[in-house]
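Dear colleagues,

As part of the handover before I leave the project, I'm documenting each prediction I ran so the next person doesn't have to rerun anything. This entry is a single chain, and its sequence is reproduced below.
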Amino acid sequence: MSPTLLGEIYDDIVQRNLAQPEFHQAAAKVLDSIGPSIAKHPEFADHKIIQRICEPERQVIFRVPWQDDTGEIQVNRGFRVQFNSALGPYKGGLRFAPTVDLGVMKFLGFEQVFKNALTGQPIGGGKGGADFDPKGRSEAEVMRFCQSLMTELWRHIGELTDVPAGDIGVGQREIGWLFGQYKRLTNRYESGVITGKGTAWGGSLVRTEATGYGAVFFAEQMMRIRGRDLDGTTCVVSGSGNVALHAIEKLQQCGAAVVACSDSGGFVHEPGGVDLEVLKEMKLLRRGRIADYAAERGIAVHRGSIWEVPCDLAFPCATQNEVDLNGARALINNGCLAVVEGANMPSTAEAVDAFHAAGVAFGPAKAANAGGVATSALEMQQNASRDTWTFEYAERRLAEIMSTIHDTCLDVAEEYASPGNYVVGANIAGFERVARAMLALGLT
């Protein structure tokens, strides 16, 4: 397939999905990589696999009415984009944030298709959520919202159909309320319908830690092939939510010093290392902000770019497009060795190009942050067999999966004459696994 035809496909995607820049960006990243695969496998073009893979199988949009603590009725919008089920039931998280719209859901669902394929597990890709902001809401309000959302969502999901999980704004607390409402509506205890559950009621050990731990396991492999390890390295981790907290935890276990973290209100820089115990208490127990952590530690909150902080490795773990070209240049100029994406598409296309041009090792999200969904699939496996695994066994499985993803990316990049390019390797490896399944299943 010629670059011209790939360009025409992209133009068609933009026209068919107007005002959805995040989805356009995600599609462009994949299309920019897969040309050599199409040339090697013309059957993918003959059967219009690209066009079919870029169109969701189903998009569900619905209203979510709920009552706040003052008795006032609020109305939000809920989404579930079921993108591709060629490899298994749709799998992907639910995000609660005011920035959620259809374009964001489609970008996340599209990325999820290839990320899930890279894990080697039998799961398709999807994503969902709502434009609801849980910040500042009481527990009762968040519970009522979760129950209202599930009152519509339940009819679209199931352990053999679509299995949601958590994402930004949706943690174990919210998963519990969502699952409880599903159980109430369906009158069945279908553990495998949702992941990220508490371990007392069907959850898996390591699931909470999995995305952050997985990113660090991926970084370990990136350093290994360069003859180094994480011990003694200086790291910057953006964000201070679940992914960031557990990336910090695993990095510290590996002997790295994490000197900066952040939230939407700014960042802290502690050359002696972040105090994880205080940070966890502030974020997980008090549900506070980074400013509260700074006050507790007696340090300043900085309002500029966290990427100005010198480091050996950078872990963007907050949100999409948080590392722009200026951030990339700052990291490069400060001698950063590697960037490992813990969030979904946190680096702009210009930033990624800059990293590659400067020789900075770059682990893209669909590979480096696949640990969360990989462990969700392990949770599904335990639910199906009515089994529970030890923390050590589940963590070992996660580490093995991340190592395999890393090596797969490098092997495929080498096969397609892009040695060391994790972006090319991840995109082509994920695409080919889904494409082959789609061919086998016929015109669906």
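The chain has a mean pLDDT of 97. The longest helix spans residues 391-415.

All the best with the project,
I.
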